[in-house]
Amino acid sequence: MTTIETHADAAGESVVASFFAGLASWATTADHKKIGRIYLGFGLLGLLGATVISALLGLERAAESAALQRDTLVQLFQAQRVSLVFAGVIPLALGLAIAVVPLQLGARQIAFPRLALTGCYAWLGGLVLTFTALGRNGGVGGGTPDAVDLFLAGHGLMILGLLASAGSVAVTVLTTRAPGMTMWRVPLFSWSALVSAIGAVVALPVAFGAIIYVFIDHRLGTQLNFGGAEGIGPWIGWIFSVPMVIVFAIPAVGVAAELMPVTFKARQPLRGVLFTGIAFVGFAAFAAVTTQSFVTSPDNIATMVSLDSDQTFGAFLGDLLPFLTLVGVPVLGLLMVMGLGGLTAKSGMAHGRPQITAAFLFSFLGMGMVFVGVVGTFLMGIADLEIAGTAMEEGAVLYVVYGAAMGVMGGIAFWAPKLWGRTLPEKLVLPLVLLALGGTVLASLPLYIAGFLGQAGGIPASDPDLETVLSLDYAGSASLWNVLSMIGSILMLVAVLAFVGLMMKTFVGAGARAADNPFGGHTIEWSRPSPAPASNFEHVPTVASATPVFDMTHEGSRS
Amino acid sequence: MALPAAAPPAPRRQLLVGTALACVAGTMLIGGMLAVFALLRERFLDANPEGRFPVDYIITEVASNVMLMTLWSLCVFAQWAVYSGKRDDRAHTALALGIVGLLAIAFINGQAFVWYTMGVPIAADYYGPLFYAVTGTMTALVAAGLVYTVVASFRALGGRLGEVEVLSAHALYWYFIAAAYSAVWFLVYVTK
Predict the structure, then answer these.
(1) Closest-approach residue (CA) in chain B for A115
(2) FRET partner for A320 with CA separation of 20 to 30 A, picked from A18, A279, B75, B173?
(3) CB contact under 8 A, B36 and A210
(4) Domain range spanning residue B62?
(5) What is the CATH number of the domain that holds A425?
């Protein structure tokens, strides 16, 4: 499809006219790099909001007396989940994929660019409606019926938008690869974006169907079937939780997998196994969908297993197999990705010193955080541990979301030269890696401990639910874990804020122009100038390997 | 640094793949909704062992059966449009697409008839919200197909008849709709 870009230069000398022309250029763009950056910009803002709300909730739980009004607390708990997932991790991961994947594939444009942009606006509109609804006592257990309906409609709109954008990414990987680029040669990040997009296409429509039911039942029906406003949590709450969130974190894993061979200046061995590992993480989408059955059939939860010795072997096996398939396979997938990363590191170290960058550290440590979240999800599935429904669930969500955000920040630092022609200053980004790592661990690990100690978790839908979530044993150590979690979210807030500041500084033109391939990247986007031109490639290149640029610079070198 | 240039890549069925993904999403949507429908019906029948679901409504089976046949016959015409398009046969392509559009409208009309005849109040009992959610979503998908037919007609007949990708993708969507409605028909109208 032919698309036309409006450029700010067309407005001539006038500053005002130039500003509005620039704004129009961004608002109506068909350039995937701009669409991706719109997602990334709002995603970073959403993440900032999520860290603020998480810190406020930590403060509330740590305080012996209520620090916030109880009426607002039910909405605040939901605002945290909405901002972590729908305003944070999803737009960040999707934005990076939209901005980078076509470049990696040797494509001039993303598939269906206007659909991707429309999806972005639908998501943004839905997000605004959702927060408006929460501000008017809507949401799960909300007391204003119209606002509850608005909350559901907002979610429906967000899901439609995200499906449109994720669909564009998936079709791009499947159909617009450069000549010679078989699926086998697709860059690792693009593969992870495809897996994540397909996971979204599989799981989000199920949530959309539940939203239709709950909306009709709540607005027009008897509220007998779905429990009215309080039923929203059980029916669609799974989209704010693990394992669903893991699906959106897959591109962050892809960034780490992409940067491992670049950092260690070696080819990635066993690419097929690595592809399989990333695809295994996508099994989380199926696990997420099955958790909806919890509502109607609590005895038949496919993501849980009991080790009780009194049960028959057949019953144990019947629980174990779906549990291992749905919850165990993503753990295995991440282990495979990390194991093969280690293999690449070993291979590279034998031939010289690696080029450790802030981008690599961000993404590698981010993947580690996601892994801890996935392991937490696995442990929650073991019924005998009695940690399902505790604060550990929130800890796992924070591990996955903050870990994925670290991975995406690594991706932004890595691909910034191609997106806006500047590199982020390494010396300033490196401390942020440590800050974000400390923030993620402090925000999440204490909640794991609190979960093991029995602190209740979940999304409260009513005053009794809220009482349960906030009731802590202050004679014990419960307060300490919540204080630590609050501090963690504040550290994450500072890290993200500083990262956004650095990004904006280079985005407006500060710093030296980046070289074409400043990090020694292996894939074809690094054959283009920095920043990449609007149409990416004047001549679509022919690709003869998975690492064409690495081959050109290391011809005849080790494999 | 520059890599060797190649000829521009041939189109790789973007629209077809995109439509296939939309069909996957639609399958998950309808599948998920039917699963919930079946589970809630089971719950209702467990609580009312002598009961029937729906309670007091007579399902207009003739109309629902005709709607099913309408959709499957619609697929034949959608495929006929592909066949004619491949042969640059503008008249038959237009005729086939026109019939597809008419049949889609007939389906929507049939659904409206079923709603009117059954007279299920949406706010009165347990069954109403479930029934209208499933059948309403299905009707919305058919309406989306009707829009797709109009777009495909403009694109195929507006000078690009030789490119049958849009017609093939259009036909694929209607196959999905026919399969999805078959499941809805069986669960909502046949089994009680």
Answers:
(1) B18
(2) A279
(3) yes
(4) 16-190
(5) 1.20.210.10
